[in-house]
Amino acid sequence: MTTLIIGLILFLGVHSARIFADGWRTNMVSRLGNKGWKRAYSVASLLGLVVLVYGYGLARQSPILLWSPPLWARYIAIALTVLAFILLAAAFVPGNRIKAAVGHPMVLGVKTWAAAHLIANGTLAAVVLFGAFLLWAVFSFSAARRRDRAAGTVYVRGPQSRTVVAIVAGMVAWAVFAFWLHGPLIGVRPLG
User: DSSP character for 65?
Assistant: First the structure.
């Protein structure tokens, strides 16, 4: 569990600079330059991701069951992960109406993904992993919306076709991951 927590601290800590230390981040960007900051950020993020994935794998070898999720929780989690993938796709399709409505669909997608996995998993390692991501996403979304309000940011509401592209892309990505990748990569087949 210690390795998982170290990985979470590193990965989410790097991703929390704009939430808790925006001034420090701005100073680092000016000191290192935009490319230097992005390199350092990417290396620290990748290292944190590797450590947390390895730590979660270790923790799953000796699971501590906190509760046994009911069967219906699995179906709710599946529906929520479809929504999470649509939100993630909406972050990359310019001018879609989902982004115009929520402002930060990627962070909202992470929040939805984490909540879905908390509903469907009852082990201590899952609560630590997905609970940490959910907590981070709540703070990140709130901070991003505050920055938007302070800057007067308005997201472009483009044609409906861009929203359709985001929805279809999200659903296709979800299907590929749920049917073919989740089992080999994560070790759990959510759809049997």
Answer: B
The reported pLDDT for the residue numbered 126 is 97
Q: Which residue has the tokens 């982004």?
A: 99
Rounded to two decimals, the pTM is: 0.93
DSSP string, 120-144: H--BHHHHHHHHHHHHHHHHHHHHH
Here the tokens at position 6 are 């170290």
The 10 Å Cβ neighbour count of residue 40 is 14
DSSP 154-182: ------HHHHHHHHHHHHHHHHHIIIIIH
Max Cα-Cα span within the chain = 52
How many CB atoms lie under 10 A from the CB of residue 100?
17
Task: Please enumerate in sequence order all residues whose Cβ is within 8 A of that of 162, keeping only pairs 6 or more positions apart, or say none.
Answer: 93, 94, 95, 96, 97
Exposed (0-12), middle (13-18) or buried (19+): which is 173, by Cβ within 10 Å? middle
Q: Could you write out the DSSP letters of every residue in 77-106?
A: HHHHHHHHHHHHHHTTSTT-HHHHHHS-HH
**Mean local confidence (pLDDT), 96-120:** 97
Place of tokens 């992993």: 129
Angle, alpha carbons 28-111-121 (nearest 5°): 125
